[in-house]
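ok here's the first one, seq then struct tokens
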Amino acid sequence: MTELVFQRHRRLRKTAGIRAMVKETYLHKEDLIYPIFVIDGENIKNPVASMPGVFQFSLDRLGEEIDEVASLGIPSVILFGLPAEKDAVGSQAYHDHGIVQKATRFIKERHPHLVVIADTCLCEFTDHGHCGVVDANERILNDPSLDLLAKTAISQAEAGADIIAPSNMMDGFVTAIRHGLDAAGFEDVPIMSYAVKYASAYYGPFREAADGAPKFGDRKTYQMDYSNRSEALREATSDIEEGADMLIVKPALAYLDIIRDVKNNFDAPIVAYNVSGEYAMVKAAAINGWINEKETVLETLTGMKRAGADIILTYHAKDVARWLEEK
């Protein structure tokens, strides 16, 4: 009788101890960035209906959120602002006392060790909801927008932001912001570029949370076509050449191949943005009892790290930090 010859891969899955010994990919609290929405006003803690567990905080209520983040050992937050007033050029984005600037100062005074990342864009601050200057024909103007984005980044750095994260997808935005920061004496402030940002349906809940939906048209003339893969490398290449220190791929879940491509081609930290729609889908399914939320989230985020992400920006961060303590 011919002897069967085959590999017994199950030997390395036999016990929990052996599985832990050969585990290849780990998720740590240090990998996490937690997004926070700050809003002008007083005594505001508005729940975001499409994102259970996520709120808009006024400055006088922000302390309770920041204290919890710090107590959980989450090292980094990213701030998105909702101003009291909006205008055509998003002037509250670069005002010395804009909501993001005020929140940054508040956090750095309360928890100096927390890394504060400032999202650098105009869409939450413009009355038309686009990420740049718009002309009379509703065209988004690239080059005039760069000056305002650089002003925004400088203002955020002056307020104490540790990292500038430009998300606008204007051509040349990294160059403009790097030159602006350097000229203002902030040459040591890194840029975490939204280098690969697709025009995605997964952003819907965020637009409710940040009140940033465009009032006309869409963002397909400046955000990427989700059908394209090699375009991502062109975008990332230009950002690295212009001075980006870290590269974000957004969204993450349907773009794991892009995360891997970017990781394979660039020797820089890669950030996966686990966006609002991805969060909302998991939350909705968990609330209905259709999935195990903890196991689903941990599997999903581990998959992002396995794909090549060094850092994960996620609304699940607080829950993940608690779950990792339980393991």
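and now the second one, same deal
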Amino acid sequence: MKRALPVLTVLCGLVVIWYLAAVWMNSTWVYDQAGRAGTTVSFGEMVPQTMNQDRPLLPPPHQVGVELWKGLFGQAVTSKRSLVYHGFVTFKGTMMGFGLGIAFGVLLAMSIVRFRVMDMSVMPWAIISQTVPIVALAPMIITLSSQLGLEGRDLPKAIIAAYLSFFPVLVSMVKGLRSPDQMQLDLLKTYGAGEGATFLKLRLPASMPYFFASLKVAVAASLVGTIVGELPTGAIEGLGARMLIGSQFGEPLIMWSALFAAAILAGLLIVAVGVAERIARRRMGAV
């Protein structure tokens, strides 16, 4: 309870601020309607009318909650209006990009630690790559995929997700693989251990805390990359597509419910990474 109290306090504060902002932003429509009708609206009459508008500028929390509930539990999971359906589409792209990002990041980190020339030549370019805005890069990847004859939207989304997720894995794994000190390395040399044995017995176990910490960042970045990849593809499936549809058709409740569904999905993925970390640590004999 002591750990949860600060979080709940901040959450309550955010909800209060959200309600106040909703009253302020949605009051414009109420006063405009009253002005057109030639009537006046008091503050006490205005506030309730800002809470249940069909197309509010800023939906209050309870409206978003109702729309989110309807999207998650009020539809069949196979329905195109179900957030579970669209969430699964986004989940597939996220996992594909996450897997590619892990593989590329780990292999590149191993090369950088093993070969000094890779450290001097590749690492600066890996850092520079993260300065390119993903919203500018995504249409280029999609166009290039089409020119290469790659059908479907899954692969371009996975590439975009991998682009965002590989970097935290790369940086953390380089740090983790280099974390053993010289005394530990010299000890293994006295036992006659080669580079392969040193990697498996010392460097790899020492890098695991760094690796799993990076996965929590990478999986969230992969989800963001997948959603961004759904926006310029003209996709009609996925949480990113739902956000785009809500924006284009002036349906803010659809957009906000998809946004919160994405946040819930990100939270579940991070929890899953935490569970995998505890299982791995237990199997490795760590406390």
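notes on #2: The longest helix spans residues 195-230. The chain is about 80% helix and 0% strand.
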